[in-house]
Amino acid sequence: MEFLQKEGITTREELAAYRKPLEEQVLSLMKERRELYRKAPGGMRIQAINGELKELRKKIRLSQKIEKQSLEMEERLRQAKATGTGTGSVRETAKRQNGIDKEVKAYELWR
C-alpha cells in the first residue's frame, strides 16, 4: 500500500500506465549498456546503468506482483459473494468473514 500511495496509484490501469515507461526505460538502458560493453567495457557508466536497471526492475516486479495479487483478491471476493459464507461452526464462519472483510476493505481502498 505504501508504494501505491507514494506513486499516487489507485487503479490497475494506472499501475499499468506507471509500469510501461519503466519497461521502456529498461530497454533503452540495456541498449546503451550493450553499446558501451562493445566500446568501453568496464567503464563507470556501465556500473551506473546496472544500478539504474536494478532499481527499475525492482519497481516493475513490485507493480506486477501488486497487479497479480489484486486480480487474485478480486477473484476470491467474487467467489465468496457467489458461495455466501458457507457452512461450518459459528467461530469458523466469523473467522472466514473477518478475513473476507479485511480483503474487501483492502480491495476497495485499492480500487
Structural overview:
With 111 residues, this protein is mostly helical. The chain contains 4 helices and no strands. The chain is rod-shaped, with a radius of gyration of 21 Å. It has helices spanning 2-7, 12-39, 44-83, 90-110. Helices cover 86% and strands 0% of the residues.
Shape: rod-shaped
Q: What portion of residues belong to β-strands?
A: under 5%
Uncertain runs with pLDDT below 50, 5 residues or more? none
Derived from helix and strand composition plus strand pairing, the structural class reads mainly alpha
Distance N terminus to C terminus? 12 Å
Which key terms come to mind for this protein?
111 residues; 86% helix
Strand and helix layout:
Elements: H1 2-7, H2 12-39, H3 44-83, H4 90-110
Short summary of the structure?
It contains 4 helices and no strands.
